[in-house]
Amino acid sequence: MVCHQRSILWPYIRRQGELSDSFNILQGVRQGGILSTNLYKIFVEDLLVELEKNAIGFSLGDIYCGTPTCDDIALISSNPAELQIMLNTIGRYANQHHCNIHPTKSKVICYGSAKNHRTNT
To answer: d(Cα 30, Cα 17) in Å, to the nearest integer?
Structure first.
């Protein structure tokens, strides 16, 4: 099913009104595809299990809150050291699975009083 979904796509690039030859997409999920979100969650499931096994980050009762959405994952922690461990785990996963983490698309958002925040440079 997944292979068939990819095989019927013939992507190309349009530049200055000209179309390139079509090419195969060898990695990733189709943007806007009906299965894309679920395929992404299946792909990162072992990462989420590893993050949960570390027993760090935010949980609601017994539910770990490393929340995958589309092609994003929200990491939530009140402890900078725990957050760094989660980031290191994701970095290892990305290297093992030949994924890129885009620094310009990655953000750290601090909540709470400013006196508890510190900035690493």
So the answer is: 23
CA-wise closest residue to 44 among 89, 88, 2: 89
119's tokens: 């900035």
Is the separation of the CB atoms in 92 and 82 below 8 Å?
Answer: no
Contacts made by residues 50-54, CB under 8 angstroms, sequence distance 24+: 50/89, 50/93, 51/75, 51/86, 51/89, 51/90, 54/85, 54/86, 54/89
- Report the C-alpha gap between 98 and 28 in whole angstroms: 11
For the stretch 52-95, pLDDT in tens is 787 777 777 777 666 666 667 788 888 888 889 888 988 898 89
